Structure formats: structure tokens, C-alpha cells
């Protein structure tokens, strides 16, 4: 049985990196798997500074992003993490068998601390060193294992978290008896889209170095025009010597379906200006149907809410069954 699970933090508008590194996979996998659950990680996202006043809106924006990008509620459950409290209950249980040493050495732990340092939120300092960022991967393990999921479409910076998930599963099985099988990541070539302003960093939800799925054609054209390029003028794919241009070629390739070799041929002897203007067109065209669907969905908020609540009811049934098994094995029941 293939059981797919994934989640995204509602920490801002989804961008092309999210789409190519995560959601595109999800949409493909939902047709092939036996159980599919996609989650808005609203409990994960409060581990870094956020604004409670706009948070509900932000969560609903991400739900619409998912649906507009092709997540099909007939095939997948679409849930909010905080509405299925069994996740946090299992996380507490997992806490008791997760050594701190598995968590504080993860690069993402340091990165999240830096994010807090750099946050523009006026109260950001109050999030410093909170337990939640240390515990982040344990909650993630609970998200995955509560549904006995085994295939996890994510970007490659999440791989270490999946290792922790597997360690926790193994340790639970060893201590209390076999319940959990191991999980596998599902990666694709879009798994690492870089920032348009600094190709040493991945495209993220902050700043204007990313292209949001909801950006208007004008914004897209402007951002691509401003994207940094590498020193020599050729439009060739080489991630070592030409990381910025290679990133743009990757985006072109993944959105248009053209082979990378073909793109290099098409732009041999041509300028960055020409290449960028065509790339902007590719991105605008690609996003058009997404944006139309998004606008349609905005008109039917009741539909969106009913997709969520129906999914969450079904998820609770699955989650309760695992939690019962866990508690029985542990002598809690
Ligand atoms: P985040 O936006 O960090 O919550 O990530 C949500 C999902 O999108 C995760 O599966 C990430 O691995 C993926 N993702 C985020 N940024 C990128 C990127 N620049 N390139 C590819 N995948 C990404
Ligand atoms: N940690 C993931 C991120 O930052 C989001 C996430 C939470 C997730 N729980 C998950 C991803 C479970 C996959 C499976 O993007």
C-alpha cells in the first residue's frame, strides 16, 4: 500500500520552489497512491515569528494555493494540522523516546534560529530558542507516522527530518513492539529552486527573491528582469560555474517541458535580455490557469471550508486508530 503524506508551513505565499519541489509531485502522486493526505502545518509555522491577526487568512491562502495547483479533494485529504489534535498527542509520546542529540545537531535547527534573528517581526526576540524549533522534527514524525505514511514528497532540505522520523519509528518498534514501517522521501529534479537574487540560497517565502504563484504578469516580468546572472554571457547549464543562469534554465525547463539541451541551443549566441524575456513569458503562461482557478475558488469559501472539515473528520478516524494501537503497546490503555 502506498500511503502519501506531506505538509507545507503556511508562512507566506507559495512560490515556484514550493510548486516545483513539492506540490507538483503531490499532484502526480495523488493518482497513484492508496492513501493521500496533504497538510497545512499551522503548528509548525508558529515556531517562528508570525502575526496572529493575519494567520487565518494566510492558512486559507495556502489551502487555495493547494486546490488551485491541482490537489484533488476526491483523491486526497486536505487537513489543517491543528484541527487533528492526535498529531500533537503522538508528538508528546515521541518526545519521550527522542534524544535531544538527534535534534540539536540538525542544520534546520540552526537555520530556524537564524530566521528568528533576522525576522522583521517587532516581537521576534520572544521566539528565540523556543522548544518548538528544537522539537519541530518530532512533530513532523508524528504527522507522518500517525497515518502510517510511507512515501513523503518533499524538497531535499527535509531529508534529515525524514531520517529522524525513521529513527523514531525504529526506536518505538524496538521498545514497545512493531507498529511503524519505514518511510521514504520522494524527490524530483525541481527539488532545489534557488533564489533569483542570491543563487547560494534556495527560493523562499521572504523577500522578493522568489516568484509567488499569485504574482501578476508585471511582477513576474520585473522580478525576472532583476534576477542576478553569472559573469560570462553564455546561456549554458552548469551549476558550478553558472549557478544563477542554470537556475533560470531549470525553471524554464520544468515549466515549459523543453529539454535543457534544447534550451541551450535555442539561446546560443543570444543575450540574457532575450532569454529572460522569454522565460518571463513561460512563467506567466504557466501560471495563468493556476491563477484563474485560484480566483474561482476565492468566490466559494464555503466549498473550501467543507473540503477541509470533511477531510479532517476522515483523518481523525485514521489517526485515532494508530494512537489507540500506540497507547495499547505502551501500557497507556
Ligand atoms: P517551506 O516553504 O519551507 O515550508 O517548504 C514547503 C515545501 O516546499 C517543502 O517540501 C520544501 O522542501 C519545498 N521547497 C521550499 N522551498 C523550495 C525551493 N526553493 N526549491 C524546491 N523546493 C522547495
Ligand atoms: N517541515 C516541513 C517544511 O518545513 C513541513 C512539514 C511538516 C512536513 N510536517 C510534515 C512535510 C510532514 C512532510 C511531512 O516544509
Give the number of helices: 12
Segments where pLDDT lies below 50 for 5+ residues?
Answer: none
* Number of β-strand runs: 5
Number of domains: 2
Query: Oligomerization state of this entry?
Result: single chain
* Average of the residue pLDDT scores: 94
Helix content: 40-55%
EC number: 6.1.1.2
InterPro entries: aa-tRNA-synth_I_CS (IPR001412), aa-tRNA-synth_Ic (IPR002305), Rossmann-like_a/b/a_fold (IPR014729), Trp-tRNA-ligase (IPR002306), Trp-tRNA-ligase_bac-type (IPR024109), Trp-tRNA_synthetase (IPR050203)
Subcellular location: Cytoplasm
Function: Catalyzes the attachment of tryptophan to tRNA(Trp).
Descriptive terms for the model:
ATP binding, Tyrosyl-Transfer RNA Synthetase, ligase, aminoacyl-trna synthetase, 333 residues, single chain, mainly alpha, binds adenosine monophosphate, binds tryptophan, Rossmann fold, 3-stranded parallel beta sheet, EC 6.1.1.2
